[in-house]
Amino acid sequence: MYVGIDVGTSVVKAAAFDAEGRQLAAEARPVGLSLHGGVVEQDMEEVYAAVVGVLGALTAAVAEPVEFAGLTGQGDGVWLVDAEGRPVRAAASWMDGRAHELVDRWLADGTFETVFRRTGSAMFPGCPGPLLAWLDRHEPKALDTARAALYCKDVVFQRLTGAGPATDVSDASMPFLDPRTRTYDDRVVELLGLTHRRGLLAPVSDPVATAGARGEGLPAGTRIANGPYDLPACALGAGVTSPGDGLLIVGTCLAGLVATTELDLTGEPAGLYISTDRPGHWLRAMPAMVGTAALDWVLSTTGVRHDEVDGLLAETPPGAHGVRVLPYFAPSGERAPFVEPRLRAELTGVSLESTRGDLIRATCEGIGYAARHCLEAAGLTGSLAVCGGGTRSPAWMRLLADVLGRPLRVVEGEVGARGAVLAAAERFGAGLDARAWTRPTAVVEPDPERAAVYTAGYAEHLEQLAGARARARA
């Protein structure tokens, strides 16, 4: 049995797989988010307790010895720990918006662009650079007390194993890592005013760190590999490794990823280049801030249940009777395929004749248009896989295929956990058959007539977005 652990933003999951990649069982526990005034934080102890809980339940449900475990989790944010790996303060989430004024300043004075040209990272308020700079200004004692500023999975790895603080090249990619040397760029640290905090950056393990479990959740001595974080882990779990091929993750975060061997730091600064376990291979990533979270908000506001979505989508034609949604609901604005910290969602074209179905379809279409924008900016030329919670809706998958105008290789199950196991297998030399492990569960073809309607709709989406961005800057 091989175990994959995926420490998500709202749900912690663990899955067990056999040697052929069949998912034997999965366990999940929700974790909370504290949102107030643009500040988004998480309780590290709650997150770790959820990890131990799902692992305990999983190993109890599947009575097989654990060969090894792979760990992945949400990226970005700042998770401050002391010398024993205990929390110094609540974790600042990647969704946090408190540092938007710093990002605004760096956008205006050229720092933002300079950092992108050096590292391929387009900073946003919830990434470690701005958050550490904000904490340095407003909570310096927290940084004085901390031993390391880690990422989510790194905290869990340290607690599960007792290993020292460390991260991997994928998590370190935003915003301090030079993608060519795979080491921190101290000039970027200096540009962000953090040279005196340089010691908080965790050592980069390349390849990923491994250690034995201490006995919490997993049997003592179980081998665990730390990384990569959830976006590249999902790419591995979906079999997206050949240049030009892409992955769309329809989860809390809507992320478009394209595998590449070319590092192009020209053009509009946006997204990031994620370093992988293979030097010279990157993922060009355009992780938008909000995916299923936008639909969840609309469902909650309209009183619609998740199991009603497919039926409502069937009631309304493409175009949603003129209702449009710009799905930029995050408190910190948008980060891909452009950075606009003050951008907010817009709902237009609504009248007394509009139905709940119109609102739901318009939201799903808006998310689809945002996905198309991300994938085009990331340079998609090959096949496209799709994974995440959104794949549970067949009607939404058909809509996405139509909006994107291309077939979708649907990969279901715990794809991030699956990728974490494959990364661990590479580290431990286990020789698992990656092709068998990443077979799609379905292929959804676009409908040519609907795809033509959505091509026109996408052009209108871009026009409306340009106006929204101009208003956000005014």
Automatic annotation (TrEMBL):
It is an enzyme of class 2 (transferase). It comes from the Bacteria. Signal peptide: none annotated. Its EC number is 2.7.1.-. Keywords: Kinase, Transferase. GO terms for molecular function: kinase activity. Residues 1-206 form the Carbohydrate kinase FGGY N-terminal domain. Residues 271-425 form the Carbohydrate kinase FGGY C-terminal domain. Belongs to the FGGY kinase family. This is FGGY-family carbohydrate kinase. It comes from Streptomyces dubilierae.
